[in-house]
Write a structure and sequence with these properties.
The complex is a heterodimer of chains A (313) and B (254). By secondary structure, chain A is an alpha/beta fold. Chain A is built from 12 helices and 14 strands. In chain A, helix 4 packs across helix 5. The longest helix of chain A is centred in the middle third of the chain and has 16 residues. The radius of gyration of chain B is 20 Å and the shape is globular. Classes of the chains: A alpha/beta (313), B mainly alpha (254). At the A-B interface, helix 3, strand 6, helix 4 and helix 6 of A face helix 1 and helix 4 of B.
């Protein structure tokens, strides 16, 4: 019992049996989007909310933020009702494909949102400058947002989510529509949040991003959570097979060691299922002065789990 | 002040909108054109200038209220800026109130500018500042506030084009409903009369804000009428705003 209360205290977000359906017209029947979502996000972790398009990720996030009113279920942030202003004071939010007031400059925009948190003038000015630097928009501070590119909007969106120095940051597809360099920069910023002790809840359908930065994940498919837990628990360390590319060995010597599935320019591609055979191949290579070009153990990835769960549903 | 911040931002948005200046330009043209009409008229030319000038201020003020009012709330929803806004510690009512006050401030500035042109033109003719004109204009401003509230109410649940049509209909009905009052006086007591009375109570009567004739012809106005009209404007506007807040309170932003 004591353990339970301790866990409860450490929850940044706690959702229980969240349900929501929309009717999209007067005579159309209701479409159930969320069919009883339960999840908990612990304080200080990066939580990945993973699912295919249309699974209900954004709807869940909008329920958390009070943009949509759920039909049923409970949502708590830091153990308090999620719509209380004392809670919202500590929450930052970046929507999917953000778009902001195009007639404002970046500086005016951040200043406006700072005012909504009742930050004093001096603090607003400092905060605006430091945030613009953080997201790499220092030079665009006095540019109207209508002239911003997609990537720049994503950055200013991230900056506005941080204006109140939130303890909980909710990011809806934060890496969508960015080039590889931009993705890396945003990823680095998200990892820095964690170092600063912030809790991050991010949704994505891009697996690599989540795999790279998240501590725990929940997978949502068709309005239901189908899997939830620590990444290292979900992904087993078990090696499926080892992929070896080598050259300089006779074909006959490899016959019972592994499955040869391709030969390109003298290089042999082997798929080895048994780990003890990998050692034997390595010994053989050493003995004959042959060459190893690559050796990759294939473990289970988040993608495997994801594809697996989606298929099962 | 959160409401103040939203109002300031709304004001900024409105003042950076080209539509506003287009309407202001036509209003100025309308006011100045009264001078031309005056030339073509036999009789009191100053009265024509006053008549047409006040009518221009009124018409373009209402158009500004409708076009700005229906656009600004809808734009926040359509462009999804409302997502980040309402995820902050802000009540939805504060959002609507901020929008309303920002628009009222915009209309106030625009009305002051139009009045300056109008009074300037009059001054060129009479060599007097006609302060009495301001009386009519103040009540126009009350009407603009009410129309803005109506435009915001419609835009909380429908598109700008529909909201504009609804708001325009509200405006037209409001200026024609006094006909119903005359009809009621001529009806015999009975069910139809009661129904007509109920309808009249429900419909807006915007002629309450129309002091143009009295001002132009320098007719006396009993102070009771001022108070009545002012109270009518304030309460009707509050009523519409509360209605808008109720619609907005439980709206899902998909």
């Amino acid at each position: 019992m004591e353990k339970n209360t301790a866990e409860f205290m450490n929850d940044a977000i706690r959702i229980e049996d969240l349900r929501k359906s929309f009717s999209l017209g007067f005579f159309l029947k209701k479409k159930e989007i969320l069919k009883g979502i339960s999840l908990s996000v612990k304080e200080g972790e990066i939580f990945g909310y993973l699912g295919p398009n249309g699974a209900g990720k954004t709807t869940t996030i909008k329920c958390i933020l009070g943009l949509i009113f759920p039909d049923g279920g409970a949502i708590e942030i830091f153990g308090q009702p999620h719509l209380a202003h004392r809670v919202k004071n500590h929450v930052g939010f970046l929507p999917e494909n953000p778009y902001f007031y195009d007639y404002l400059t970046a500086r005016e925009f951040l200043n406006y949102y700072g005012e909504l948190f009742l930050l004093p003038r001096g603090e607003r000015i400092d905060k605006t400058d430091s945030l613009l630097d953080l997201v790499g928009l220092g030079k665009a501070a006095d540019l109207q947002l209508r002239k911003f590119s997609r990537g720049m909007l994503q950055r200013i969106g991230l900056a506005q989510a941080l204006i109140n120095d939130p303890k909980l940051v909710i990011l809806d597809e934060p890496l969508g529509g960015l080039d590889p360099l931009g993705r890396k920069e945003i990823r680095d910023i998200i990892i820095r949040f964690k170092e600063e002790g912030k809790t991050v809840f991010l949704s994505s359908h891009i697996l690599q991003d989540i795999e790279m930065i998240c501590d725990r994940v929940a997978i949502i498919v068709g309005g239901r959570i189908v899997n939830q837990g620590y990444l290292h628990e979900l992904i087993s360390e078990k090696i499926f097979f080892t992929e070896i590319i080598l050259s300089g060995l006779e074909d006959g010597e490899l016959e019972d060691l592994g499955e040869k599935y391709s030969v390109q320019g003298g290089k042999v591609f082997l798929r080895v299922l048994d780990e003890s055979k990998v050692a034997r191949i390595l010994a053989l290579v050493h003995e004959r002065n042959a060459r190893i070009h690559s050796l990759i153990p294939r473990t289970e990835t988040l993608e495997d789990i994801f594809v697996d769960t989606v298929k099962h549903k | 002040m959160k409401v103040g911040a939203i109002a300031r931002n709304t004001f900024k948005e409105a003042m950076r909108d080209r539509v506003l200046y287009l309407l202001f330009f036509f209003a100025a043209v309308g006011i100045v054109a009264s001078r031309l009409l005056a030339v073509l008229t036999v009789g009191d030319r100053v009265k024509i200038i006053k008549d047409v000038g006040l009518a221009s201020v009124s018409l373009f003020g209402v158009l500004m209220a409708i076009l700005m009012g229906t656009g600004l709330v809808y734009k926040e929803i359509d462009k999804k800026t409302i997502f980040t806004l309402l995820s902050k510690p802000i009540h939805r009512a504060q959002f609507l109130l901020g929008k309303f006050l920002g628009l009222v401030l915009t209309l106030f500035i625009m009305t002051v500018l139009m009045s300056l042109i109008f009074l300037g033109l009059l001054y060129a003719h009479t060599f007097r500042v006609e302060w009495s004109m301001l009386l009519a204009i103040v009540f126009m401003l009350l009407e603009f506030c009410l129309i803005t509230a109506v435009a915001i109410l419609f835009s909380t649940f429908s598109t700008p084009i529909l909201s504009s049509i609804f708001s325009l209909a509200f405006y037209l009905i409001g200026h024609l409903s006094w006909g119903l009052e005359i009809l009621i006086r001529k009806m015999r007591p009975g069910l139809s009369r009661t129904l007509a009375q109920a309808l009249y109570l429900f419909l807006p009567d915007l002629e309450n804000f129309n002091f143009k004739t009295e001002v132009v012809h320098a007719l006396p106005i009993p102070p009771k009428m001022f108070a009545g009209s002012a109270a009518y404007g304030v309460f009707y506007t509050l009523f519409i705003l509360i209605l808008a807040m109720l619609v907005f309170r439980k709206k899902d932003f998909i």
